[in-house]
Amino acid sequence: MPYPDPAALLSAALGLAGVGVPVLPLRKGKVPVGNCRACARNACGGRPNMKTPGPCTCPHPCHGWAAATTDPAVIGSPAWRPAWRHAAAVAYHPGGAGLTVVDLDHAAAIAWARNHLPATRTVPTTRGEHWIYRGAMRSVNGVRDGVDIKSTMSYARWLGPGTGTLTALPDTVRALTAKKPPVARPVAAAPVAGAGGCCPHRTPAYLERGITMAEQTITTAPTAVHTTVYRTFLAVLSAHGRCGCLTDHHITRLFTAAQSKGETARHCADAWTNARTRLGV
Fold this sequence. Notes:
This protein is α+β, with helices and mostly antiparallel strands and about 280 residues long. The protein has helices spanning about 5-20, 70-75, 80-85, 105-115, 170-175, 205-220, 225-240, 250-260, 265-280, and strands at about 25, 30, 90, 100-105, 120-125, 130-135, 140-145, 145-150, 155, 165-170. Strand 1 (about 25) and strand 2 form a beta hairpin.
């Protein structure tokens, strides 16, 4: 499948930057450009805790969402040209633009939003819709089935201006990320799925919290990213690798988090394989 026209992507990126929206190039698979050799495994030190948008001192589009910038001299610089030549899409940092994206991944999630959230600007996606609100908040994946919150320390694919009036971020969206009290665990573990019993995780929310925590562990790692990725994969597989709950979607989310920190697809695959081998799953 051919890549989009690099000139068109660059033009769209510069247009967004001109109205204050920090942008970055996305590779095929909707993942940011991996860190350059000088910044691999955060050798450069990155930005402090990755809490502010923009690149490190490296001129390349490194460090995932934190590379997003509104500086046209950076976006069109020679250091960014290779990334645009191989880019598949333009992404932006919603929190850096003072926005929050409610990413609705399927029809049921859209129906829920229409019943529970105030109307705002909407953008159609491949499988669902982005609902965009004015105001920033922390990003959390999997707040409900098929619902992710993308704002600070996150990125969203630019899919066009959308339709409808941009409205203020409501408390109903902020409440989606509130921590819920832990679910009481039964004294005896349930049998493992595939062995004639039911899944030991009881509810999809248990697995979702585990995957979300794993993503956050990876994306907030200030150093030793490669080691953090392997240990996180090991922990996920140790908890969820034997019951058949993990799907390709969950694994893709973990790989995407790792690649946003500069890990290559091959490193992710190797770390996953090594973790499985160690656990015998």
